[in-house]
Write a structure and sequence with these properties.
Blueprint: H1 2-12, H2 16-71, E1 93-94, E2 105-106, E3 151-154, H3 158-172, E4 183-192, E5 196-199, E6 202-205, E7 209-221, E8 224-239, E9 249-251, E10 255-256, E11 262-264, E12 267-270, E13 274-275, H4 305-312, E14 316-317, E15 323-326, E16 377-378, H5 391-398, E17 405-412, E18 415-418, E19 425-426, H6 427-431, E20 434-440, E21 464-467, E22 473-479, E23 483-487, E24 492-499, E25 533-534, E26 550-558, E27 560-566, E28 569-571, E29 577-584, E30 599-602, E31 620-627
Parallel strand pairs: 9-12, 9-29, 10-13, 11-30, 12-15, 15-16, 17-20, 20-22, 21-23, 22-27, 23-28, 27-29, 29-30
Antiparallel strand pairs: 1-2, 3-4, 4-7, 5-6, 7-8, 8-31, 14-25, 17-18, 18-19, 24-26
Length: 629
């Protein structure tokens, strides 16, 4: 009976295992589906992150492309230059003060011009859309707002769409690729004013311009384009801080040159004491000058301008632009004949009409036995400073990864490695016949320092001497060497451009204004660097009796064409010619008296429009990035 009861009980449980099995299978199936869905979601998230990153990189690439437009306006080395028809300048809302409380005004093509409207400084018949200057007037400065940019290239216009499609293909090709022709594309470029920051109640521009780029990753399915991702990126541009020199030679300590070393076409200065050549005739004579109110101001003697101009009309002027400024004393032996060698003005100019021009009053030494005027030599000038090239800033620029910048780590002797990797090369091999921005670091990779307090930097690399043969470099060389010297070197081809006619900057604004006295030169006599300049009150060089802002070009050779800055010394020996500017932080002059006949010529474009747009040098740098996240 018990067995029968158990049997009946078991018969009532038939099918339970099947139900449990089915439930377990259902639960496992649901879990599997959940995991599959979760995996698909994660995969989609990862795919979206990839697409977003791809759009971000495309936007950054577009911003760097625009930076290059400013570096090399419409150069054939750019990926693809935008046609003017693709650039909309009519949207410009001028924000002149940066104050968000004041309304920005729409350009009207007149009193509120479009950006670079009618600005054609290179006279090629086209507005200088990306050319210098970037300040000075409403037309030059980038003053647009984010809603009303100075320039916009947008795929909403036919010309804009054609350009952006073409340049995107140039930049990205089929990237990133995949089913449906997935492709990265720049869809809009805006250029407008930089950020403003309120500093002590004044809205201050922090930069030169803002570049805003919108980029997408798109896919075409069935003839319809789908946007897979879109990113916005902003880059703030600043001008490269090249301007600093105001003449061909600057010593930030003592200066000594006692051989035939000659400075031409501009100002030489010394922050310390100065020892010039004691051969009076070797100091370049010029137009008489008076003590300037600032080192960058050329203060010509104007007390009796018209009569003196008439008295020297047709005469040679040895160097119309040369002047020497010493913050400290000049060796008295160099100033033989001065009324008071301790005076601020060693050679005061006292000519009076109608006296004939006599000793110490001519603009050159060609009137022997009468001496030339040296009222262009000044001592005890507190206005003299050292042009600054801050180590950390320029190292940051050199290591930025931008094109045309090169950073070198010291290896041994005068050998360096680019970015600290690869084979070491000598300074000469690295720079000869090369162009660009070159930064040569200290031995320990930190700013120059004087730990023992002896007045000399302790971590500079060994002296660099270029001896014999042909050597020439073009661009900006930043050195941290104990000394730099050339001996018996023949430079490479360079085009020397004579400065514009000297004028007396009576309002000290650094800009020639109509009515300010100027020296009219007969530039047509200049065919070689050794040729004389002639004062000619009726010369019509450049199309009429007017002040010429630029002189003629003269072919020559230069060991340096550009700017050389050294935290150590500069030894002017040998017979090399330099065109541009040399700045020596630790002084000028070898331990022994300098010998040879080196020549230094000032390149006036360094303070007007440098570097040339055709050079492999950056004109602007990116100082800030911002994205839409």
């Amino acid at each position: 009976m018990m067995n029968g009861a158990n049997s009946k009980h078991r018969e009532g449980e038939r099918g339970a295992a099947l139900i449990v099995t089915i439930l377990v299978m259902v639960i496992l199936t649901l879990l599997g589906i959940s995991f599959l869905m979760l995996g698909e979601t994660e995969n989609q998230i990862a795919q979206n992150e990839i697409r977003s990153a791809q759009a971000l990189y495309a936007g950054e690439t577009g911003a760097r492309m625009v930076k290059r437009f400013f570096d090399r306006p419409f150069s054939n080395t750019n990926v693809r230059n935008p046609p003017l028809a693709a650039i909309d300048r009519t949207l410009r809302l001028l924000d002149e003060d940066g104050d968000p409380a004041t309304a920005a005004l729409l350009q009207n093509g007149g009193s509120r011009p479009m950006y670079k409207q009618g600005v054609d400084l290179d006279a090629n018949g086209t507005d200088d859309i990306f050319g210098k200057p970037y300040r000075g007037s409403l037309a030059h400065a980038l003053l647009g707002t984010e809603d009303g940019p100075d320039m916009r290239i947008d795929e909403g216009t036919t010309a804009g769409a054609n350009y952006l499609a073409a340049v995107s293909n140039d930049l990205f090709g089929a990237f990133p690729g995949g089913p449906g022709g997935v492709q990265a594309r720049v869809t809009r470029i805006d250029i407008y004013s930089p950020p403003y920051v309120n500093v002590a109640g004044t809205w201050t521009r922090y930069g030169m311009a803002t570049v805003k780029v919108i980029a997408r990753v798109v896919q075409t399915i069935g003839g319809t384009e789908q946007v897979l991702s879109e990113r916005m990126i902003k880059a703030v541009l600043n001008e490269m801080p090249y301007p600093g020199p105001f003449g061909p030679l600057h010593s930030c300590a003592n200066l000594s040159f006692t051989g035939d070393f000659t400075v031409n076409w501009g100002a030489a200065s010394s922050v310390g004491t100065s020892d010039l050549t004691n051969n009076h005739d070797k100091i370049r004579a010029s137009w008489p000058r008076v003590p300037p109110p600032g080192e960058r101001v050329d203060a010509l003697w104007t007390a009796d301008w018209a009569n003196y101009m008439a008295a020297v009309d047709g005469e040679v002027i040895e160097d119309p632009w040369f002047r020497f400024l010493s913050k400290d004393f000049i060796d008295p032996a160099d100033l033989a004949g001065a009324v008071d060698v301790l005076a601020q003005q060693p050679f005061p100019f006292t000519w009076t009409n109608p006296n004939p021009v006599g000793d110490g009053e001519w603009p050159s030494h060609d009137n022997n036995p009468d001496d030339g005027s040296h009222s262009n030599v000044f001592q005890n000038m507190p206005v003299v400073t050292c042009p600054s090239f801050e180590y950390d800033l320029w190292k940051t620029i050199a290591t930025s990864g931008d094109s045309d910048v090169h950073y070198y780590v010291w290896d041994n002797g005068t050998s360096f490695k680019e970015d600290g990797i690869g084979a070491a090369q000598t300074f000469r091999a690295i720079t000869d016949n090369e162009e660009g921005l070159f930064f040569f670091d200290t031995v320990d990779g930190v700013a120059p320092n004087d730990t023992d307090g002896d007045g000399d930097f302790d971590n500079l690399t060994p002296k660099i001497t270029i001896t014999g043969g042909t050597w020439g470099s073009r661009g900006f060389l930043y050195l941290n060497s104990t000394d730099f010297q050339t001996k018996g070197v023949t430079g490479r081809a360079a085009t020397f451009n004579a400065p514009g006619e000297p004028w007396s900057d009576t309002d000290t604004d650094g800009v020639y204004d109509v009515g300010e006295p100027y020296i009219n030169l007969n530039y047509s006599t200049l065919a070689a660097l050794s040729d004389d300049f002639i004062i000619d009150t009726t010369d019509a060089y450049g199309g009429g009796v007017m002040r010429n802002d630029k002189g003629p070009d003269v072919a020559g050779t230069a060991a340096l064409w550009g700017i050389l800055f050294n935290n150590g010394r500069f030894s002017p020996t040998g017979n090399a010619t330099y065109y541009g500017s040399v700045v020596a932080k630790s002084g000028v002059g070898d331990t022994a008296p300098a010998a040879g006949t080196p020549q230094m010529y000032w390149d006036e474009s360094i303070i007007k429009d440098w570097p040339p747009s055709t050079w492999e040098l950056p004109r602007v740098m990116i100082t800030r990035w911002e994205t839409d996240l």
